[in-house]
Structures
1.
Amino acid sequence: MTQKKVALVTGAAGGIGTEVCRQLVNNGFKVVATHRPGKAEQAQAWLQEQNLADKDIKLLALDVANHEGVSQALGELLKAEGRIDVLVNNAGITRDSVFKKMSLEQWREVMSTNLDSLFSVSQPVFNAMCEQGSGRIINISSVNGLKGQFGQVNYSAAKAGMIGFTKALAAEGARFGVCVNAVAPGYTATPMVTAIREDVLDSIKATIPLKRLATTEEVAGAVLYLAGEHGGYVTGETLSVNGGLYMQ
Ligand code: CAA
């Protein structure tokens, strides 16, 4: 029997993360789904609510912003699993504010969770992928990293940084058979987006050519493509799923 491919998904219990886990596990991957430390009960409840409890999903407590904690947890995970075939760097937060009023804390929180985490999480996994001679890393960026967004100087900077990281690591990974790509979702129907003030969200929707939010299925489908058999010749790319909101 051939061994199942192992996919590690950070921030798995979020709107996009949940659907990414579902599509990967339904397409034959073993999924390691990370949640914040101290949230084991909520993570178990999430598996039940999402009808994922009987699937091949293992939970892992991981604060992606804690470099030492990540090194230790991923070292143990790699020992236990033997390999990681797909890494989806999905964990991300917003701390929206106009720049004039943005605090250093709002800046740092977003940078450490959304961008510094790419260093901490990807390095041990990338090294293992290079040794095994194959792997896919998929970074969940954002349309707002491409076009910039009023009220999101911190988030837009971090999400744009993810795209530079993607291209540079793709250049380094190619000789080892490791493909590195980004998916840049537009406004997607997740709690992060529905938390935007209603009048603000309405005005955003009006500017989207397709006049609606993306579904999490549509975004996860792009991740599955990059993780799967037919994504093997794509690297260093940023795949936009944004309803035409920003056309490069
Ligand atoms: N362009 C230009 N001007 C704008 C603007 C825009 N896009 N949005 C607001 N303004 C103007 C307002 O009209 C207002 O002007 P006046 O003072 O003349 O009335 C001024 O800027 C201040 O705006 P707010 O009243 O909204 O200011 P606030 O301090 O109450 O709120 C904010 C600021 C929290 C940033 C709020 O504007 C907001 O939530 N914006 C949305 C930010 C956003 O898009 N976040 C995305 C979250 S989802 C996500 O990040 C996922 C993803 O990847 C897509």
2.
Amino acid sequence: MFRLDGKVALITGSTRGLGRAMAEAMIAQGAHVVINGRSDDAVLAVAAELDLDGRSASGVAFDVADLSAGDAAIDTIVGRHGAIDILVNNAGINRRAAVEDFGDDEWRDVLAVNLDAPFALSRSAGRHMTAAGRGRIINTASIMGTVARPTIPAYVTSKAGLVGMTKALAVEMAPHGLTVNAIGPGYVATEMNTALVQDPEFNSMVVDSTPVGRWGTPQEIAAAAVFLASDEASYVNGQTLLVDGGMTTAL
Ligand code: GCO
């Protein structure tokens, strides 16, 4: 079960963090994973590191906020590999400031990466998946698509938007053989959260308000992505799978 043999997956933002963990997990299940990030060097280095047998990983460097570059990347991947079976819209950024201090540029940057790019890439990949009659689109949302905390208004808005986009694409694309779902990670100790992990008060808040009693690991998020990408998830569509240790369940 949960094998991905013969599948071609593009995971945006996969040179580190959740995306890299997803890449490792999907490769272990037999997929060919296309590594993405903005840096050519990082993309090629991680692809080389994860390429177990000369067939497991390759790389396409582009900034997901550059929508035309994203469209071109999708065409390149299909040209090189004959298909794109799995798209994981994982690349994401966060900016933290009180609403009254939150800048227009910061707002635009977060929405561009976290929401505009997933839509544009899903539209491009969706064309190929529709032609093939199959495909999986998985969006890395967040518990912040469902709840909120102060100082991250753009991130919360972008992730709530991504949850909505997941539903919108799910109902339109499923008749063509695709499913579209999202993963809502809780607090995971990735580079994006280094400042939070190192903050004793914030760290205690996460541990105390998560029934499982700890931060999540990238591998626990990756396991959810493998499931949603697999044939076994063929009847899961339009859902956001929260992987948060129960944080959003607890009062
Ligand atoms: C923050 C964090 C969160 C987490 C993640 C939880 O500033 O509160 O960055 O947003 O990273 O989104 O899923």
